[in-house]
Design brief:
The protein is α/β, with parallel strands linked by helices and 478 residues long. 30% of the residues lie in helices and 25% in strands. Strands 3-4-7-10-11-12-13-14 form an 8-stranded parallel β-sheet. It has a 7-stranded antiparallel β-sheet with strand order 2-15-17-18-24-20-21, covered by helices on one side. A 5-stranded mixed β-sheet has the order 16-1-19-23-22, with no helix packed on it.
Amino acid sequence: MTARFSCDLNGPATELPHFWEHTVGSGHATLALRADWQAQLKQAHDELGMRHVRFHGILCDDVGTLIGEGDALFYSFFNADLIFDFLRSIGMRPFVELSFMPGVLASGDKTVFHYRANVTPPKDYAQWAVLIRKLVSHWVERYGLDEVRQWFFEVWNEPNLTAFGSGRQEDYFELYRYTAEAIKGVDKQLRVGGPATADNAWVEDFLNFCRAANLPADFVSTHHYPTDDFGQPGDDTEAQLAASKRSALRGEARQVREQAGDVPLYYTEWCTSSNPRDPMHDEPYAAAFIVKTVLEANGLVQGYSYWTFSDIFEENYFPSVPFQGGFGLMNIHGVAKPAYRAFQLLHELGTELLPVVGSHETVDAWLVRGDRDVTLMLTNFALPRHPIETEQVSFTLKSESPLATASVQRIDIDHANAKRHWEERGKPDYLNAVAVDELKAVSELRNEPLAVRNEAGQSSLEVTLPPLSVAAVRLAHA
């Protein structure tokens, strides 16, 4: 059955700010000292419009921000400065995750990740506050107050999980109190927020705590992944239940938006799944999921930070296989995955969203107006183990002037799909420069002409959508 949609080009438009470009995620602070990481982040900024980057561990011992010898404490902001100097040099800013605990301040020896990030509370909260105040004051002196007022200071990472601490609210709230007071002691207009939780947790409790304690909460931050809602990866029962939850992340964001009230809301992590080795991260599935999820989040969030921009990532270990299911939009060689191309298509959209009439079980449609053209975004998406087939889409546009041309860019099994090409070449574990260039060429988006029928007062076109695909149709008037 044909999926039918229509839109009146003269209808009322809704603003579509590019909130998904506010921030993008990375893994670990010291990765930002690598030349390949830097090159990929610059590409994400230049081609995708990403404006901030967030990562773990700016306070970890491997950055050297605070170390100790005997009873003496030594503050060294050199490596942190190198990282932030680079961000500023390419026109980006940090979304500063204040983590994890310097060993000299740690109350215990519990760690996470292969780089052994200490996740215990400070043994002396006052000394933690001294570190935060010194560090933020240094950045204000180095970069200027007007600049640092445009940064975001997020306290810790996923404190509701025992992997990153005790999992107890009272412990996190104490840490937040000392951190927020230290930052505001430098300048009251600097932005600090939290609770940086997994799975949309603690938002109301966090805001209630801040109000009761007269503490600032300049923004709310939290995380969500579809696997949070659908159960653990590999759980057959939960995967079957997921069939009815194609828009689950939108539903969660709506609930958190209500909880946050007027406080700005930033999702500082989200992705196709929370599994760090999920084949879907490398496949067209991710592109369809991203486009649908992002456009459905419009009006609910101020920032929506995808986790992560690159497979140069080392929480557990650093795989060398070119396509190993990592979180990144690009693989370790800088080859764009379908997910990257999805963000590229989103970046090229205008900022006015027009109402589209029509519905379908797996196909969704959005029409976005820009300064020069109009783009019809289409996805054919279903969650794993949910039925999906190739669909014929019919779209009618009501307009005072006929369309002159239409072209389509596709992401699907046959388009912008570098992983498939790598598989067809025998899945080599290591790539030379020629192979990398070949994969980069295969990953590119291509323009294809599309036929348009013009009648009195309206234009129509048809698009075939394979399963788990994206099509961006650009429409131009005579």
